[in-house]
Every structure is written in C-alpha cells, then in structure tokens.
Write a structure and sequence with these properties.
The complex is a heterodimer of chains A (about 60) and B (about 500). With about 60 residues, chain A is an all-alpha fold. Chain A is built from 3 helices and no strands. Classes of the chains: A mainly alpha (about 60), B alpha+beta (about 500).
Chain lengths: ~60, ~500
C-alpha cells in the first residue's frame, strides 16, 4: 500500500518523460514494436480492404442510442 | 447488503450494404437478421426462433429520478421492426437503423464475455447467410464499433441489477467517477476527434474512447441526443418494488475479451460497493462531461482531472484508488454478489492492467483495445514509412472492428482469450444455466411453435385452448437450470409445462 502510494505520486512526472520519448518514431520502443508485429503486418496488408480509403470515406452510419 | 449483480450487454453494430447505389441501414439490418433466422429454420433440429416480442411491459420513458425534466425526450419503442428471440436467451433485432444483439441475462462478468463473443459469431453467420441470399457483387458488412468517425455514434450498453432501496443519487456519484476513468482500459481507440466546437481539443490524433466525444450531460433520460454519462432509464424488466436495472450507455464495444471482462467486472464490483455503502464522495468528479473527454483525449495518461474537493488526480490514480477500496471491500464483505471466483479474477486482472498501463502501456496490447489498435497503427505507419496523417490510417482503424472473419484486424492481433471456442460455440445456441435466461432459451428450443411472444420478464404460450397463457419471470435469478431444468426435461408439451408451473 505504502509502496503504491509512493509510486503513484511519482507517476505523473515519469509519464511526461515517456510522452516526450514517444514523438520520434525511431525510438528503441518503436524498433521493438516493429520487430514484434512484422509478420502480422505482412498478413494485414493482404487482408486490408481493397479501396480501403474509399470505403472509410463513404462509411456513414445513422446515429443510434 | 449487495445483491447478485445479474448483468448483460447490448451492442448496436455498424452496418453497410455494399454493391448497391444507396445503402439503407434499416433494410440491411432486417435482411441480416432475417437471413440468420431463416437459415436456422432450415438447418436446426429445433424450430425457428421467429417469436414475436411482447412490448406490454416496455417503458423506456420512465425516469429513475422520479420525474423527468419537461424537455426530456423519452426514446420511442419501435414495434414494427424485425425481432428475433434466440435459443441462447438473447434478442437479435433492428434498433435505430442498426442491428443489435442484447445478450441473455448473465450471472457474472465472465458469462457476459462468452455471450458477447457468441454474438460476434452470430453476426458472422448472419453476414454469410445474407451473402448467400444477395446477388453477386453485394454483401453486408458489420462492424463492432461505436462511431463512424463523422459525428454519428451508436451504443454498447451494459445492464446491472441493483437493489431498489439504494438512493439513485449515490449510484450516480460512484458510477460517474468510474465511467470517466475506466476508459483507460475500456476504450476501443479512435483516430481523431468528433467533439469539435465544444471546448478544447480540436487536434487530437488518437484518443482512448470511441464514445467519449458524444456525452453532453451528467445525468439524463436521453440515449440518442444530449447523451448523459449516467442514464436514468428506469425500466427494471423485473420486480420494480425490489429492483432497478442500471442502464449504462457510457461504454465502448470491445474486441478484446479482457477489456469486456474488466468493463463489466469492475463496474459490477463498484455497484455492489455502492449497495454496501462503502464508497464515500471523496472521488466524486467536479466536471464529469469535461473530464470524460479530457481522459479520452490523453493517450499519454498524464492529464489530471479534479475531484469535488479540488484534488487533481490522473484517471490512473483514480482507478488505483478504486481498486484499493475494492480489495478492502472484498476482504471485509466477500464477493458473493459478483461471484467469488470471477470477482477474484477481476481484481487480479484489474491490478495487472493498471500496473501495465502505468509502467509500459504496450505491455497490455493483448488486453486493451486502444493500446492494441495504436500498436497496430504504429507498426503499420513505420512499415510503410508514413505517418498518422496518412488517409489509410483511418481505414486501418475502421477495419480493426470489421466482424468478417476474413477481414477482421482485431482477430489477427493475438488478443488474449479468456473464453474457449467450445464455450462460445455453446453460447450461440444454449442459454446461461444460472439466470432466468435458461428458462427462456430452453422454452424457445423446445416449444417455439407454441410461444406467441417473449420478453425479458415473460413468455406467452398458446397451449391450444383459449386463453393465451402468460408466464411471468419477474425474478431474474429464478428459472435457472437448478430451478426448472428437470421440469423442462419432463414436460413434453407446453400445456403440461404451464399446468405444472401454475400448480
């Protein structure tokens, strides 16, 4: 409990640092993501809707609840 | 003392009829449902679930605050559109130009996840069935999302059974705090912003929630305009003297099973804590409408919101505080009301996900939709040496929600499962065993041709002789397998069933 309190008080400061690091896409974290889902991305390009841009542009729904 | 948190989930899906000049969402939704129902009639051993809906007890205009403001617009009941009651106890129907599936009543959050996934399977089969009926070049495409990205939203609602004796104001305070901050793990992720001109953030690249932009009031009866964070629809579908049904409209439809599990599981715990009077007002949010957007518009999770006492906290800090209080509540009072094993699993995963979000958000990409979607887009833009402003990013984000198995992106991201394929397959046709949905589902499977109408709290039988017989089901925890399983096994005709029920 006490440990968590401590962690939480310091959390916002740390987060600000993380946000700053996210901006350049060449960060180490970015490289990790790339390696991790590379195979997945191969497959995703195959299943992406043809004319995906047109599809999303014409995607209009009626408002619901 | 907290009562059993019987709960359910209702999802309005996005729908497009491709290959026609103009896609009509109402006829497309009707076609989708009719295609599913007519294929069932051909293939199933049981008779088709083409049972009418009984609107006698529908009263969506009733307000939990006692009286509604004069300008409130109560939702209308649409009685003429397609309605099917399924043998799993769910309702599959057309609502506001969208196909909607309302899950059967479930006894705990894990059961809700099973029936939410079963609903996806039903939609998948319905799309395939419609495809076989349509001319070539046409198809119905259904998305499990809550926004078209152009300012139109549709809902994924949750329902929780609550003790009528609890003052509604206390529910509002606690629920609002949770709904504003739970987005950090329930958000399905949205590219861009749809609340422009309403103060602040017009330049949001990516936000946590599909839905947060659409809330304009703190409390109210509306669901389609001026949407409130806490909805006051007072329609218990149960004994109104004893129960209320909290109708929650402030949630995203999730593709990640853990997100659905935590959305329902943590909310059930918070509401049980309200019933046990262990939540005070210290976490009440000062300006909830601004706060729900502020939290959603901040994927860095660093922004603070203010409590009524003037304390500034991040959503993550509020959630950690709620978790601490929930753990203490569980120790002191036990978790009978949310299912002890499921409750313990909710607490464990709640802590895991909050800790992950705090230390390394990407570590919960298998559990939290907005993180999974962001990771997908990050990887894809890097692969194609482009940026989030690329028009194709919006297409990628939309296709995350596509329910066609061959097109689904969420289905390819390795999201963690907490259900098994066998459980989900069973949930497509069989009801939960531990709520009144069991009675509804079994009756529909066995006596569909004699059931003239169904509703959440009644079934109307035609037993061959006048008059029609209405069987009330006002107690959601009765009509379970333990309660009526043997009776249903033994009765070979609906007349026998009705006679034995009334004796």
């Amino acid at each position: 409990m006490a440990e968590r309190e401590q962690k939480r008080r310091t959390a916002p400061e740390r987060k600000t640092d993380e946000v700053a690091e996210e901006a350049p896409q060449t960060s180490e974290r970015g490289e990790e993501i790339k390696a991790d889902i590379d195979d997945l991305l191969d497959e995703i390009d195959d299943v992406l809707e043809t004319n995906a841009e047109d599809f999303v542009r014409s995607y209009v729904q009626k408002g619901g609840q | 003392m907290a009562i059993t948190k019987i709960c359910g989930i209702e999802t309005e899906y996005g729908i497009v009829h491709r290959g026609v000049a103009e896609s009509n969402p109402v006829s497309a939704s009707s076609l989708l449902i009719n295609a599913y129902v007519s294929e069932l009639a051909v293939t199933a051993a049981a008779s088709s679930p083409s049972v009418g809906w009984d609107f006698e007890d529908e009263s969506p205009g009733r307000d939990a605050r006692g009286s509604a403001p004069a300008d409130a617009a109560p939702p209308e009941v649409e009685t003429h559109l397609v309605n099917a009651v399924l043998t799993n106890g769910a309702r599959f129907y057309v609502d506001h130009a969208h196909p909607e599936i309302s899950s059967p009543e479930c006894a705990d959050a894990r059961s809700v996840v099973i029936f939410d996934r079963a609903a996806e399977v039903i939609i998948g089969r319905a799309m395939a069935a419609a495809g076989r009926m349509l001319p070539s070049g046409q198809e119905l495409v259904v998305h499990k999302n809550n926004s078209d990205g152009k300012g139109n939203s549709y809902g994924c609602h949750e329902n929780y059974l609550m003790d009528r004796a609890v003052p509604f104001g206390r529910i509002v305070t606690a629920a609002t705090t949770h709904f504003v901050t739970r987005q950090i793990f329930t958000g399905a992720g949205k590219v861009g912003v749809e609340a422009s001109g309403q103060g602040g953030d017009d330049d949001v690249t990516y936000q946590l929630s599909q839905r947060a932009d659409f809330f304009e009031a703190e409390v109210g009866l509306e669901t389609t305009l001026k949407r409130p964070i806490v909805n006051t629809r007072d329609e218990p579908h149960a004994d109104a003297q004893r129960y209320r049904r909290l109708h929650v409209i402030a949630g995203d439809a999730n593709l990640a099973e853990v997100a659905t599990f935590l959305k329902v599981g943590t909310t059930a715990i918070i509401l049980a804590m309200v019933e046990d009077e262990v939540l005070d007002r210290t976490l009440a949010i000062r300006n909830p409408v601004a706060a729900i957007r502020a939290v959603s518009h901040d994927p860095g999770l660093a922004r603070t919101i203010e409590t009524v006492d003037g304390v500034a906290m991040t959503a993550l800090e509020v959630q950690f505080e709620l978790l601490d209080r929930a753990k203490k509540w569980a120790e002191d009072r036990g978790m009978e009301s949310v299912g002890p094993d499921v409750g313990a699993e909710v607490l464990r995963r709640w802590e895991q996900v909050l800790t992950g979000l705090e230390t390394d958000p990407d570590s919960v990409a298998g559990q939290v939709d907005w993180v999974a979607k962001r990771r997908l887009i990050d990887g894809w833009t890097e692969r194609h040496d482009t940026s989030w402003s690329d028009h194709r990013v919006a297409a990628l984000a939309l296709q995350y929600h596509d329910l066609r198995p061959e097109r689904s992106l969420a289905g390819r991201l390795g999201l963690e499962r907490i259900t098994t394929d066998a459980e989900v397959a069973r949930g497509v046709t069989e009801p939960p065993t531990d709520t009144r949905a069991y009675f509804r589902g079994r009756c529909l499977a066995k006596f569909a041709s004699s059931i003239v109408a169904a509703n959440w709290d009644s079934l109307v039988f035609d037993v061959g002789s006048e008059p029609l017989r209405r069987v009330p089901m006002m107690e959601p925890s009765r009509g379970t397998e333990a309660h009526v399983g043997r009776l249903l096994d033994e009765c070979s005709t609906p007349a026998e069933l009705v006679a034995r029920l009334s004796s």
